[in-house]
Amino acid sequence: MLHLPLLPNHSAGRAAVTCKYRCGDACFHDVPNTSDNPYFGDLVDRRTAIKAGVVVAALGGVAATAGCAGGTGVAAAEPHAAGLDFDPVAPNALDAVVIPEGYTQEVVIRWGDPLFADAPEFDFDHQTAAAQARQFGYNCDFAALLPQDAVGRTNLLVTNHEYTGEPFMFRGYDPENPTREQVEIAWAAHGLSVVQVQQAHNGRLTPQFSRYNRRITATTPFRLTGPAAGSDLLKTSADPTGTLVLGTLNNCAGGVTPWGTILSGEENFNQYFGNAEALADPRLTRYGITGTATTRKWERFDARFDLAQEPNEANRFGYVVELDPTDPDSTPVKHTALGRLKHECANVRVADDGRVVAYSGDDERFEYIYKFISTGKVRKGNSKAARRHNMTLLDDGTLYVARFTGDSPPAEIDGSGKLPSDGRFDGAGEWVALAAGDRSFVPGMTAEEVYVFTRLAADKVGATKMDRPEDIQTHPHTGVVYCALSNNVDRGKPGKEGATEPNPRVNNKHGQVLELTERGGDALALAFSWNLMLVCGDPASPDTYFAGYDKSRVSPISSPDNVAFDRHGNLWISSDSAGALNGYNDGLYAVPVSGARRGHLKAFLTVPRGAETCGPVIGERVITVCVQHPGEVDGASADNPASHWPDGGDSQPRPSVVAVWREGHRIGG
Ligand code: FEO
Ligand code: CA
Ligand code: CA
Fold this sequence. Notes:
Shape: globular
Number of strands: 32
Strand content: 25-35%
Low-confidence stretches: 9-15, 39-76, 408-418
Mean pLDDT: 89
Bound molecules: MU-OXO-diiron, calcium ion
C-alpha cells in the first residue's frame, strides 16, 4: 500500500487570518450547536457504540500516515469506467490548474472581468465599487451552465460570489480601519453573476456582452416569500413590511431547478453582523452571531449590519434564494419555507406526482440535513406563466429534518481496526416534520419561529448531528441522494458528540460521502435507508473506505464539498481540504457509483495553491470548475501573494471559472 508522501514544504494549509474572511472563523469558534439531542450512540444498541470505538482506534493510523514518505499517491492506470477515460492527476502543490493528458483548459472569466460593454477593465490598484458592480465578483463558488438553445451553443453561466478576502484584494489593507470605498467594493463583489457564454464545437466557452448579463450584490433588492414573509421577526426600520431585503451574502453552493432557475444558499451570513453582544440573545448565538466588531467592520458603514441598531436584520439572511437568470429585470426571492440556516445548497427533485422535493444541508459542525416537500405541483413547459407558477413551489409545503435512527440490519464487528466493508455502516432514518405553512410541529415554537430559527426547531425534535453537511444531489438515473459530509475535527472532543454510524470518525479531518435512498425510491417518502459510500482521506490509512474498491488504485481525497453527476451517472466531487492531505492542492474527482468500478475514485484536476475547487458542471463537451480563493494561505496577502494564477508573472491571484475539454471528444468519450 502506498502512502501519500509529505511535501518538502509541508504547509498546514489555510490559517486563521484567511478563515476569518471566509467563514467568520467558524472552525475556531465554539460549536454553536450545544443542544442536548440524544447522542446517536444512545439511540442504537450497544453493538453500534462498540463499533464506533473500533473506528476511533483506527485513527492512530492517520497520525502514523501523516509522516510517512515514499510512494507517489498516484492511482495506478487501469481500464477506465464508462465516461471516465482519463488517467488520474497526481497530488501536487503547483500554482496551476493541472488536468489529465489530452485535455485542454482555459480560463472563462476572472474576478474583475467586465460583464458589460461599458464596464471598465479590471485594474487591481485602482478598484472602485462602481466598477466592481459591473464586473465579475470575487470568490466564485457555485456555477451553473444553462443552455438557451437546443444545441447548447448559447448558455447562461450563473455563479455565486461567496465572500471577499480583503487582505488579498487590497494592498496595504488595514483590517482595523477599512475605508468606505473598500467596504463598498466588498459589497459589490459579493452576490451572483449572470453572463452569457458561447460554446464552440470543441467546448471552449467565450463570454459575451448580452442583455442577460447581470450582477446581484450585497445591496440588490430581494423579496422575502413564503410563510415567514412579513413576520415581525423580519421587520426593520428600513423595511417595516418584513418583505424586502437588500442583498444576499455568503452564497455557497446552489442548484438548478427543473424550471430553469437558480437556487443559491446563504451560508456563513453570521459573520457580517456586529454588536450581537449587546442583545445577549441565545437565538443569535445558535447561529454563531456573537461578539462586538465584525472582521470587515461593515457595521461602521451601514446601520443594518449593527444588531444594536437593527436587531432583526440578521434574521433576513440564511435563506435559499431563487433567481430567474432569463429575466434580468426580475427581483430575486428568499424562500423562508426552506428555513433559515447556513444553507450550503438546495437541489430540487420532482416526485412522480409532480410535487417537488428540495434537499439542503446546514454546513457547520454538528448541524443537520433538511428536506422540503412542496404542496403544489410543477407545471411543465417553458412559458413565462409556468415559470412564474413554479417559482412559487418552494413557498408552500412541509419542512423536515433528518433523524438517523440506527442500524438496519445490525452490523457485525470484525475487530480488525479497519472500516467495515460496504453495508456495515448503514442504517435507516426518518424525516421529522418541523412546520407546514402556518402550522408548527415543534413544541413551544410558532411556525414563524421555526422558519426563522430553524436550527433551534431541529434541536428540539432530536435531529441527527452531522459532520458539516455540504452539497446534496440526487442521482439522475437512480434517485439515490448523495450528501458530502465535509469534515468535523470537533467530533469526539471533550463534551462533544463522539463517533456515530453516519459520522464514524472522531477528529474527522477528511469527511465522508453518504448515500441516502428514500423508501421505495419515492421522493416523497418520510423514511429512508443510508450507507457511507466513501470515507475520505489517504487511501493508505486504514480508516478510509472507497465502497470496497481496491484502495491502492484510488486517488487521495479530503473534505468532499460539491457533488455533481455526468451523463453516465458517475459522481464528481470537488474538495475543500485546505491542505489537509499533507499540504496538497484541492481537486475535482470522479467515481462510478455502480458496477465493477464503484469506488474507483480518480482525480480529474487539481487547482492552484491555496485554492478550493468549487461548483463543478459536467457537460458533454466541457467541464467547468470555479477556482475559489487562489493564494489564500497563511502569511500571504496582496503585499505578498502566494499565487500568481491565472495571469502569471508577478500578478495577483484572481478567483476564476475554468473550462476543461478534450478536442474532438465528448466528455467521457
Ligand atoms: Fe461555503 Fe459549505 O462551503
Ligand atoms: Ca461548499
Ligand atoms: Ca466550499
